[in-house]
Amino acid sequence: MSNATPLNLADFIRDIPDFPKPGILFRDITPLLQSPTAFRETIRQLAEPFRGQGIDLIAAAEARGFIFAAPLALEINAGLIPIRKPGKLPGKTLSHTYELEYGTDTLQIHADAIIRPGCKVLMVDDLLATGGTIAACCTMIEQAGGAVVGCAFVIELVGLEGRKRIAKYPTVSLIRY
Amino acid sequence: MSNATPLNLADFIRDIPDFPKPGILFRDITPLLQSPTAFRETIRQLAEPFRGQGIDLIAAAEARGFIFAAPLALEINAGLIPIRKPGKLPGKTLSHTYELEYGTDTLQIHADAIIRPGCKVLMVDDLLATGGTIAACCTMIEQAGGAVVGCAFVIELVGLEGRKRIAKYPTVSLIRY
Fold first, then answer.
1. A20 in a domain, yes or no?
2. Å between B30 CA and nearest CA of chain A
3. Could you give the 3-state DSSP secondary structure of residue A138?
4. Domain assignment present for B20
5. What was the ipTM of the complex prediction?
6. Is the pTM for the entire model greater than 0.90?
7. N or C: where does chain A have the smaller number of CB atoms within 10 Å of the terminal CB?
8. In chain B, which residues have their Cβ closer than 8 Å to the Cβ of A57?
9. What CATH number is given to the structural domain containing B129?
10. Which residues of B6-25 are buried (b: 16+ CB within 10 A; e: fewer)?
Protein backbone atom coordinates (compact mmCIF):
# COMPACT_ATOMS: atom_id res chain seq x y z
CA MET A 1 0.00 0.00 0.00
CA SER A 2 1.11 3.55 -0.71
CA ASN A 3 1.52 5.75 2.35
CA ALA A 4 -0.83 8.19 0.64
CA THR A 5 -3.78 5.79 1.05
CA PRO A 6 -3.60 4.14 4.46
CA LEU A 7 -5.51 0.91 4.73
CA ASN A 8 -8.73 1.02 6.73
CA LEU A 9 -9.19 -2.49 8.07
CA ALA A 10 -12.87 -1.86 8.81
CA ASP A 11 -13.42 -1.63 5.03
CA PHE A 12 -12.66 -5.36 4.88
CA ILE A 13 -15.28 -6.40 7.45
CA ARG A 14 -18.66 -7.40 6.01
CA ASP A 15 -21.84 -6.95 8.04
CA ILE A 16 -24.23 -9.88 7.83
CA PRO A 17 -27.61 -9.30 9.53
CA ASP A 18 -29.48 -11.96 11.49
CA PHE A 19 -26.55 -14.35 11.91
CA PRO A 20 -26.25 -16.66 13.76
CA LYS A 21 -29.78 -15.76 14.87
CA PRO A 22 -32.38 -13.03 14.19
CA GLY A 23 -31.39 -9.62 15.52
CA ILE A 24 -27.65 -10.30 15.59
CA LEU A 25 -25.41 -8.33 13.20
CA PHE A 26 -22.43 -10.57 12.44
CA ARG A 27 -19.07 -8.94 11.65
CA ASP A 28 -17.60 -11.20 8.96
CA ILE A 29 -13.79 -11.27 8.68
CA THR A 30 -13.61 -13.38 5.50
CA PRO A 31 -13.18 -10.39 3.13
CA LEU A 32 -10.20 -9.30 5.24
CA LEU A 33 -8.69 -12.78 4.92
CA GLN A 34 -9.22 -12.74 1.13
CA SER A 35 -6.92 -9.72 0.84
CA PRO A 36 -3.25 -10.50 1.50
CA THR A 37 -2.60 -6.78 2.00
CA ALA A 38 -5.33 -6.36 4.60
CA PHE A 39 -4.47 -9.64 6.34
CA ARG A 40 -0.78 -8.69 6.54
CA GLU A 41 -1.62 -5.23 7.89
CA THR A 42 -3.88 -6.81 10.52
CA ILE A 43 -1.04 -8.99 11.79
CA ARG A 44 1.34 -6.00 11.76
CA GLN A 45 -1.08 -3.92 13.83
CA LEU A 46 -1.77 -6.75 16.30
CA ALA A 47 1.98 -7.21 16.82
CA GLU A 48 2.87 -3.54 17.16
CA PRO A 49 2.01 -2.93 20.85
CA PHE A 50 3.72 -6.16 21.94
CA ARG A 51 7.05 -6.06 20.11
CA GLY A 52 10.23 -6.19 22.17
CA GLN A 53 8.46 -7.45 25.30
CA GLY A 54 10.04 -10.89 25.19
CA ILE A 55 6.76 -12.69 24.62
CA ASP A 56 7.39 -16.45 24.55
CA LEU A 57 4.04 -17.82 23.42
CA ILE A 58 0.80 -16.81 21.73
CA ALA A 59 -2.34 -18.63 22.88
CA ALA A 60 -5.63 -18.79 21.01
CA ALA A 61 -8.84 -20.80 21.09
CA GLU A 62 -10.07 -22.66 18.04
CA ALA A 63 -10.98 -22.03 15.33
CA ARG A 64 -10.94 -18.40 14.13
CA GLY A 65 -8.42 -17.46 16.80
CA PHE A 66 -5.85 -19.71 15.11
CA ILE A 67 -6.09 -17.66 11.90
CA PHE A 68 -4.61 -14.60 13.59
CA ALA A 69 -2.55 -16.26 16.32
CA ALA A 70 -0.42 -18.39 14.01
CA PRO A 71 0.94 -15.56 11.81
CA LEU A 72 1.27 -13.32 14.87
CA ALA A 73 3.41 -15.96 16.58
CA LEU A 74 5.82 -15.94 13.65
CA GLU A 75 5.69 -12.13 13.42
CA ILE A 76 6.94 -11.70 17.00
CA ASN A 77 9.01 -14.91 17.09
CA ALA A 78 6.88 -16.70 19.68
CA GLY A 79 5.52 -20.24 19.89
CA LEU A 80 1.82 -21.06 19.58
CA ILE A 81 -0.46 -22.74 22.14
CA PRO A 82 -3.69 -24.09 20.67
CA ILE A 83 -6.64 -24.03 23.09
CA ARG A 84 -9.22 -26.55 21.96
CA LYS A 85 -12.63 -28.05 22.51
CA PRO A 86 -12.64 -31.24 24.62
CA GLY A 87 -11.24 -34.41 23.07
CA LYS A 88 -9.03 -32.72 20.49
CA LEU A 89 -5.68 -32.46 22.27
CA PRO A 90 -3.92 -35.82 22.53
CA GLY A 91 -1.69 -35.25 25.57
CA LYS A 92 -2.51 -34.67 29.23
CA THR A 93 -4.82 -31.66 29.42
CA LEU A 94 -6.17 -29.04 31.79
CA SER A 95 -9.88 -28.29 31.32
CA HIS A 96 -11.90 -25.22 32.16
CA THR A 97 -15.69 -24.92 32.01
CA TYR A 98 -17.26 -21.47 31.82
CA GLU A 99 -20.73 -20.00 31.54
CA LEU A 100 -22.26 -18.79 28.32
CA GLU A 101 -25.47 -16.83 27.85
CA TYR A 102 -27.27 -20.17 27.75
CA GLY A 103 -25.43 -23.18 29.19
CA THR A 104 -21.71 -23.75 29.49
CA ASP A 105 -18.67 -24.44 27.33
CA THR A 106 -15.42 -26.26 28.05
CA LEU A 107 -11.92 -25.66 26.69
CA GLN A 108 -8.69 -27.56 27.13
CA ILE A 109 -4.96 -26.93 26.87
CA HIS A 110 -2.07 -29.33 27.14
CA ALA A 111 -0.83 -29.48 30.73
CA ASP A 112 2.73 -28.98 29.39
CA ALA A 113 1.84 -26.11 27.05
CA ILE A 114 3.81 -23.58 29.06
CA ILE A 115 7.46 -24.30 28.28
CA ARG A 116 8.69 -23.04 31.68
CA PRO A 117 6.97 -21.37 34.65
CA GLY A 118 6.39 -17.66 34.17
CA CYS A 119 6.54 -17.75 30.36
CA LYS A 120 5.07 -14.59 28.89
CA VAL A 121 1.89 -15.39 26.97
CA LEU A 122 -0.11 -13.10 24.68
CA MET A 123 -3.77 -14.08 24.13
CA VAL A 124 -5.28 -13.54 20.68
CA ASP A 125 -8.75 -13.86 19.20
CA ASP A 126 -10.63 -12.46 16.25
CA LEU A 127 -13.44 -11.00 18.38
CA LEU A 128 -13.94 -9.58 21.87
CA ALA A 129 -17.66 -9.79 22.64
CA THR A 130 -18.80 -10.59 26.20
CA GLY A 131 -15.27 -11.76 27.08
CA GLY A 132 -16.28 -15.14 28.49
CA THR A 133 -14.04 -17.18 26.23
CA ILE A 134 -10.95 -15.00 26.58
CA ALA A 135 -11.33 -14.83 30.36
CA ALA A 136 -11.52 -18.64 30.46
CA CYS A 137 -8.41 -18.86 28.28
CA CYS A 138 -6.47 -16.48 30.55
CA THR A 139 -7.43 -18.56 33.59
CA MET A 140 -6.20 -21.74 31.90
CA ILE A 141 -2.87 -20.20 30.89
CA GLU A 142 -2.29 -19.08 34.47
CA GLN A 143 -3.28 -22.49 35.84
CA ALA A 144 -0.70 -24.01 33.49
CA GLY A 145 1.99 -21.68 34.87
CA GLY A 146 2.05 -18.92 32.26
CA ALA A 147 2.01 -15.15 32.77
CA VAL A 148 -0.61 -13.45 30.60
CA VAL A 149 0.94 -10.21 29.36
CA GLY A 150 -1.94 -8.98 27.24
CA CYS A 151 -4.90 -9.69 24.99
CA ALA A 152 -5.20 -8.69 21.32
CA PHE A 153 -8.34 -8.75 19.18
CA VAL A 154 -9.10 -7.83 15.61
CA ILE A 155 -12.65 -6.70 16.45
CA GLU A 156 -14.15 -5.43 19.72
CA LEU A 157 -17.91 -5.10 20.26
CA VAL A 158 -17.54 -2.29 22.77
CA GLY A 159 -21.16 -2.30 23.98
CA LEU A 160 -20.85 -5.84 25.32
CA GLU A 161 -18.17 -4.67 27.77
CA GLY A 162 -16.02 -7.77 27.43
CA ARG A 163 -13.00 -5.65 28.30
CA LYS A 164 -14.20 -5.52 31.93
CA ARG A 165 -13.72 -9.30 32.19
CA ILE A 166 -10.02 -8.98 31.35
CA ALA A 167 -9.43 -5.59 32.97
CA LYS A 168 -6.19 -6.69 34.63
CA TYR A 169 -4.45 -7.32 31.28
CA PRO A 170 -3.34 -4.75 28.69
CA THR A 171 -5.90 -5.18 25.90
CA VAL A 172 -5.82 -3.91 22.34
CA SER A 173 -8.35 -4.16 19.52
CA LEU A 174 -8.03 -2.91 15.94
CA ILE A 175 -11.65 -2.34 14.91
CA ARG A 176 -14.34 -1.23 17.38
CA TYR A 177 -18.13 -1.28 16.98
CA MET B 1 19.35 -22.14 12.84
CA SER B 2 22.95 -22.56 11.80
CA ASN B 3 23.47 -24.27 8.45
CA ALA B 4 25.71 -26.72 10.26
CA THR B 5 22.77 -28.21 12.18
CA PRO B 6 19.79 -28.44 9.86
CA LEU B 7 16.46 -28.66 11.61
CA ASN B 8 14.72 -32.03 11.49
CA LEU B 9 11.02 -31.24 11.75
CA ALA B 10 10.18 -34.82 12.73
CA ASP B 11 12.06 -34.19 15.99
CA PHE B 12 9.23 -31.80 16.95
CA ILE B 13 6.41 -34.32 16.46
CA ARG B 14 5.36 -36.23 19.58
CA ASP B 15 3.88 -39.72 19.31
CA ILE B 16 0.88 -40.33 21.56
CA PRO B 17 -0.36 -43.92 21.62
CA ASP B 18 -4.04 -44.88 21.77
CA PHE B 19 -5.43 -41.49 20.77
CA PRO B 20 -8.17 -40.79 19.85
CA LYS B 21 -8.90 -44.48 20.38
CA PRO B 22 -7.01 -47.66 21.32
CA GLY B 23 -4.54 -48.82 18.68
CA ILE B 24 -4.14 -45.40 17.01
CA LEU B 25 -0.74 -43.69 17.26
CA PHE B 26 -1.42 -39.94 17.14
CA ARG B 27 1.22 -37.64 15.66
CA ASP B 28 1.04 -34.53 17.85
CA ILE B 29 2.17 -31.25 16.28
CA THR B 30 2.00 -29.14 19.44
CA PRO B 31 5.75 -29.39 20.22
CA LEU B 32 6.44 -28.07 16.71
CA LEU B 33 4.12 -25.13 17.34
CA GLN B 34 5.84 -24.40 20.67
CA SER B 35 9.12 -23.76 18.85
CA PRO B 36 9.14 -20.55 16.77
CA THR B 37 12.17 -21.86 14.89
CA ALA B 38 10.53 -25.16 13.94
CA PHE B 39 7.18 -23.50 13.15
CA ARG B 40 8.87 -20.93 10.90
CA GLU B 41 10.88 -23.62 9.11
CA THR B 42 7.67 -25.63 8.56
CA ILE B 43 6.03 -22.67 6.84
CA ARG B 44 9.15 -22.04 4.75
CA GLN B 45 9.26 -25.66 3.58
CA LEU B 46 5.51 -25.71 2.81
CA ALA B 47 5.88 -22.56 0.71
CA GLU B 48 9.03 -23.58 -1.15
CA PRO B 49 7.52 -25.74 -3.95
CA PHE B 50 4.77 -23.21 -4.64
CA ARG B 51 6.64 -19.90 -4.78
CA GLY B 52 6.39 -17.84 -7.96
CA GLN B 53 3.36 -19.72 -9.25
CA GLY B 54 0.96 -16.82 -8.86
CA ILE B 55 -1.14 -18.55 -6.22
CA ASP B 56 -4.07 -16.30 -5.29
CA LEU B 57 -5.56 -18.11 -2.32
CA ILE B 58 -4.78 -20.72 0.31
CA ALA B 59 -7.70 -22.87 1.46
CA ALA B 60 -7.84 -24.95 4.64
CA ALA B 61 -10.41 -26.73 6.77
CA GLU B 62 -10.81 -25.94 10.46
CA ALA B 63 -9.25 -26.13 12.92
CA ARG B 64 -5.63 -27.36 12.70
CA GLY B 65 -5.46 -26.52 9.00
CA PHE B 66 -5.80 -22.83 9.86
CA ILE B 67 -2.61 -22.96 11.95
CA PHE B 68 -0.48 -23.64 8.88
CA ALA B 69 -2.62 -22.04 6.17
CA ALA B 70 -2.70 -18.57 7.71
CA PRO B 71 1.08 -18.04 7.96
CA LEU B 72 1.56 -19.75 4.58
CA ALA B 73 -0.89 -17.31 2.98
CA LEU B 74 1.20 -14.38 4.21
CA GLU B 75 4.45 -16.15 3.25
CA ILE B 76 3.41 -16.44 -0.41
CA ASN B 77 1.27 -13.28 -0.48
CA ALA B 78 -2.06 -15.06 -0.99
CA GLY B 79 -5.48 -14.65 0.60
CA LEU B 80 -7.01 -17.25 2.91
CA ILE B 81 -10.26 -19.19 2.46
CA PRO B 82 -11.56 -20.80 5.66
CA ILE B 83 -13.47 -24.05 5.09
CA ARG B 84 -15.72 -24.70 8.05
CA LYS B 85 -18.16 -27.02 9.73
CA PRO B 86 -21.84 -26.26 9.03
CA GLY B 87 -23.35 -23.16 10.62
CA LYS B 88 -20.10 -21.26 11.12
CA LEU B 89 -19.83 -19.15 7.96
CA PRO B 90 -22.28 -16.24 7.96
CA GLY B 91 -22.65 -15.62 4.22
CA LYS B 92 -24.19 -17.71 1.43
CA THR B 93 -22.39 -21.06 1.45
CA LEU B 94 -21.72 -24.14 -0.65
CA SER B 95 -21.87 -27.41 1.29
CA HIS B 96 -20.28 -30.77 0.60
CA THR B 97 -20.98 -34.00 2.46
CA TYR B 98 -18.46 -36.83 2.27
CA GLU B 99 -18.04 -40.28 3.73
CA LEU B 100 -15.89 -41.13 6.72
CA GLU B 101 -14.93 -44.54 8.03
CA TYR B 102 -18.15 -44.48 10.06
CA GLY B 103 -20.83 -42.02 8.95
CA THR B 104 -20.43 -38.75 7.07
CA ASP B 105 -19.13 -35.24 7.58
CA THR B 106 -20.11 -31.93 6.00
CA LEU B 107 -18.01 -28.87 5.24
CA GLN B 108 -18.93 -25.43 3.90
CA ILE B 109 -17.26 -22.54 2.10
CA HIS B 110 -18.60 -19.12 1.26
CA ALA B 111 -20.13 -19.16 -2.23
CA ASP B 112 -18.11 -16.00 -3.02
CA ALA B 113 -14.83 -17.31 -1.57
CA ILE B 114 -13.14 -17.45 -4.98
CA ILE B 115 -12.40 -13.84 -5.89
CA ARG B 116 -12.65 -14.46 -9.66
CA PRO B 117 -13.16 -17.61 -11.77
CA GLY B 118 -9.99 -19.61 -12.27
CA CYS B 119 -8.20 -18.24 -9.22
CA LYS B 120 -5.24 -20.44 -8.30
CA VAL B 121 -5.84 -22.12 -4.94
CA LEU B 122 -3.38 -24.10 -2.83
CA MET B 123 -4.92 -26.53 -0.31
CA VAL B 124 -3.21 -26.93 3.07
CA ASP B 125 -3.72 -29.21 6.04
CA ASP B 126 -1.64 -30.48 8.92
CA LEU B 127 -2.21 -34.15 8.10
CA LEU B 128 -2.85 -36.32 5.03
CA ALA B 129 -4.41 -39.57 6.29
CA THR B 130 -7.11 -41.27 4.16
CA GLY B 131 -7.55 -38.09 2.11
CA GLY B 132 -11.31 -37.83 2.52
CA THR B 133 -11.31 -34.33 3.93
CA ILE B 134 -8.81 -32.85 1.46
CA ALA B 135 -10.62 -34.45 -1.50
CA ALA B 136 -13.88 -32.90 -0.27
CA CYS B 137 -12.17 -29.51 0.07
CA CYS B 138 -10.76 -29.70 -3.47
CA THR B 139 -14.23 -30.52 -4.83
CA MET B 140 -15.71 -27.52 -3.03
CA ILE B 141 -13.05 -25.13 -4.31
CA GLU B 142 -13.69 -26.29 -7.87
CA GLN B 143 -17.45 -25.98 -7.42
CA ALA B 144 -16.89 -22.40 -6.27
CA GLY B 145 -14.89 -21.68 -9.45
CA GLY B 146 -11.31 -22.04 -8.23
CA ALA B 147 -8.43 -23.95 -9.80
CA VAL B 148 -6.67 -26.24 -7.31
CA VAL B 149 -2.96 -26.02 -8.08
CA GLY B 150 -1.69 -28.30 -5.34
CA CYS B 151 -1.99 -29.73 -1.85
CA ALA B 152 0.54 -29.29 0.98
CA PHE B 153 0.67 -31.18 4.26
CA VAL B 154 2.95 -31.11 7.25
CA ILE B 155 2.51 -34.86 7.93
CA GLU B 156 1.59 -37.72 5.58
CA LEU B 157 0.57 -41.16 6.86
CA VAL B 158 1.81 -42.92 3.75
CA GLY B 159 0.24 -46.31 4.50
CA LEU B 160 -3.29 -44.86 4.38
CA GLU B 161 -2.78 -43.96 0.71
CA GLY B 162 -4.61 -40.64 0.93
CA ARG B 163 -2.43 -39.37 -1.90
CA LYS B 164 -4.41 -41.56 -4.32
CA ARG B 165 -7.55 -39.52 -3.58
CA ILE B 166 -5.88 -36.33 -4.79
CA ALA B 167 -3.67 -37.90 -7.48
CA LYS B 168 -4.50 -35.22 -10.04
CA TYR B 169 -2.94 -32.44 -7.95
CA PRO B 170 0.75 -31.87 -7.18
CA THR B 171 1.05 -32.91 -3.54
CA VAL B 172 3.84 -32.30 -1.06
CA SER B 173 4.32 -33.39 2.54
CA LEU B 174 7.16 -32.58 4.91
CA ILE B 175 7.17 -35.52 7.33
CA ARG B 176 6.15 -39.04 6.27
CA TYR B 177 5.28 -42.03 8.45
1. no
2. 7
3. helix
4. no
5. 0.96
6. yes
7. N
8. 34
9. 3.40.50.2020
10. ebebeebbbebeebeeeeee
